[in-house]
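Exercise 7. Given the encoded structure of a 71-residue chain, write a plausible sequence.
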């Protein structure tokens, strides 16, 4: 059985992946993350990983802004 943290991580990953696939970019996802102060850290980690994964799968550079929710 998954813990609450694992469930939040997976939910964040799925949301980040959906955002990137829907828009064709990680930009909207990064903007959304920048606004999520106080969000569940596992959710944010999953979301960030999905954005990184999207860039990686598409051969794009991996840059991480210092201004993200987990910053």
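Solution.
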């Amino acid at each position: 059985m998954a813990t609450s943290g694992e469930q939040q991580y997976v939910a964040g990953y799925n949301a980040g992946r959906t955002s990137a696939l829907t828009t064709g970019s990680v930009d909207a996802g990064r903007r959304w993350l920048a606004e999520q102060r106080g969000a569940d850290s596992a959710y944010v980690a999953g979301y960030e990983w999905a954005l990184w994964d999207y860039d990686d799968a598409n051969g794009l550079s991996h840059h991480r802004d210092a201004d993200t929710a987990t910053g």
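Remark. The chain has three helices and no strands. Students should compare their own answers with the one above.
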